[in-house]
Design a protein that fits this description.
Blueprint (H helix, E strand, L loop, with lengths): L1 H4 L3 H12 L3 H13 L5 H16 L11 H20 L1
Helix pairs in contact: 3-4
């Protein structure tokens, strides 16, 4: 996974498209959302993106979102990851 975190931007987007079925627009929305949550370091943000996409694809083969669906998934993921983080401290 560490190798994937260090590849160029376009290659990382294509990796996400190929492995998780997200298009460029969805990827950009996800990345922007995590950035706005305060994850400003690229490698940390990419790690969160991959965790998020892996979580989604455990129940679905491809990531598909209806109106507002992506935001709901992001909020749920964020809250659950913050809860896990708090319980480990």
């Amino acid at each position: 996974m560490k190798d994937v975190l260090n590849i160029p931007d376009l290659a990382f987007v294509r990796y996400c498209q190929k492995n998780y079925g997200v298009n460029r627009g969805v990827y950009n929305t996800i990345e922007q959302w995590f950035y706005e949550c305060g994850i400003s370091k690229v490698q940390e943000r990419r790690a969160m993106i991959l965790l998020f996409l892996k979580q989604l694809t455990t129940s679905n083969e491809k990531c598909k979102f209806g109106a507002g669906g992506l935001k709901q998934h992001l909020q749920f993921f964020w809250l659950s990851s913050m809860t896990k983080k708090a319980s480990h401290s």
